[in-house]
Design brief:
The chain is of the alpha+beta class and 399 residues long. It is 53% helix and 20% strand. It has two domains: 196 residues, no CATH class; 176 residues, no CATH class.
């Protein structure tokens, strides 16, 4: 049988049984669309969460902290040793101080993180409003959204305002006891950015602006490694120096594992709908077999082979599966777009930020179209085998 004739006979059902064929394809499309909708939601949530906590540089950065025992301090000498390790290309220290923050007539307690501008990039810190610190000597600050609420201001309203600082410095007195020194800073800091954090009140300021303050030890150091294969080697070298080391990449790996489980669970829910639609498609092909028994007998009597009959049913089921896959992708995209619009409208009404909650990898879209075609092909195997085994004389007598 010629390919053109095979295709023409296989698509005849689309003309003679329009509604039944359309509903069968629609059922497959709904199943595929459900899979795409749920899995793309899983991928979208993963992208939203990870984009909030990481940047390319932060994935190659290590967080170095002093040991809680206090036996080894994270001072300038040790900082220099870390900087000289092979494949370390950048270090960015941070000093954490207790303080009081004053804006206008209001004063509140908060933490001060004195950092270099590179600390934001290496730490994957992205401002929700405004910009990050860029000039290492400018009297500018980036605060948390919790600090903004402390002064009864929204994040967008606090930008451009000036704040004053009173630092509380730990020091050891002549008797060897720790005490706190209060130091009111004369300079004011202009707020240029806000970081989304509703839990802790803090502000980032340039480290250079408190260079006159006698602080010997750093609280934390970000260490940028040249490439991922060197991460573990450098981590072990710093640990051997007596420091605690962690990496944002560890958190990302754990988050990715969790999201993979979420995606699998969502996909399983979608596959339930796909199985139901596949059963409906199998039922359609079985009914088509019963309706065309006489036709099969005529075709066999005029010379059609067993293989031709099988191909007829397999091509028909394959085409329906393919069309169901393409239609399902369209349904998945449309449902995801509408859901995203609705969720973003609710978020804006409640003061939230608009986000893209659905992400569809190209390879996954192609995979589910292929998968749908394979499902269609498989549902046609049984009817095709039954049709091929029919006795031509019995088929001609069938009513």
């Amino acid at each position: 049988m010629k390919l053109r004739d095979l295709f023409s006979l296989s698509t005849r059902m689309f003309k003679t049984r329009k509604m039944r064929t359309f509903l069968t394809i629609l059922g497959v499309g709904v199943g595929i669309g459900t899979v795409l909708f749920l899995v793309s939601l899983g991928y979208g949530l993963q992208n939203v969460v990870l984009s909030r906590i990481t940047t390319a540089d932060s994935l190659l950065s290590l967080d170095v902290n002093a040991n809680t025992s206090g036996a080894i301090n994270l001072d300038k000498e040790n900082l220099q040793k870390i900087k000289q390790l092979p494949n370390v290309i950048e270090v960015s220290p941070m000093i954490n101080l207790s303080s009081q923050i004053s804006i206008g007539q209001l004063t509140g307690d908060g933490l001060i993180y004195a950092v270099e501008p590179s600390f934001f990039r290496l730490g994957g810190i992205i401002p929700d409003k405004g910009v990050i610190l860029q000039n290492p000597i400018a009297h500018e600050a980036v605060i948390s959204s919790a600090a903004a609420k402390l002064f009864n201001l929204e994040p967008q309203d606090i930008l451009g305002k000036e704040m004053s600082l009173t630092l509380f410095l730990p020091k050891i007195n002549t008797e060897g006891f720790e005490e706190t020194e209060t130091l009111k800073r004369p300079d004011k800091y202009k707020i240029v950015g806000v970081v989304a954090d509703e839990n802790t009140s803090y502000a980032f300021i340039p480290l250079e602006t408190i260079g006159d303050v006698a602080i010997d030890n750093f609280t934390q150091v970000k260490v940028r490694v040249s490439d991922n294969p060197f991460m573990e080697v450098i981590r072990n070298q710093i640990i051997e120096m007596g420091f605690l080391v962690s990496a944002l990449s560890d958190t990302i790996d754990q988050a990715n594992k969790i999201f993979r489980i979420v995606q699998i669970v969502l996909a399983l829910f979608g596959f339930v709908a796909l199985i139901v639609s596949a059963i409906g498609m199998f039922n359609t092909m079985t009914i088509a077999l019963l309706e065309r028994i006489n036709e099969i007998g005529i075709m066999r009597s005029i010379g059609a082979s067993v293989g031709d009959i099988m191909k007829l049913f397999l091509v028909e089921s394959f085409i329906m599966g393919l069309l169901g896959g393409v239609g399902g992708v369209a349904i998945g995209y449309a449902a995801g777009g509408l859901a995203n619009i609705g969720i973003n409208l609710l978020a804006k009404n409640f003061g939230g930020q608009a986000l893209s909650l659905f992400y569809r990898p190209t390879w996954f879209v192609a995979l589910i179209i292929v998968f749908s075609s394979v499902i269609g092909f498989l549902t046609g195997v049984y009817p095709a085998r039954k049709a091929a085994k029919l006795n031509p004389l019995d088929a001609l007598r069938y009513k």
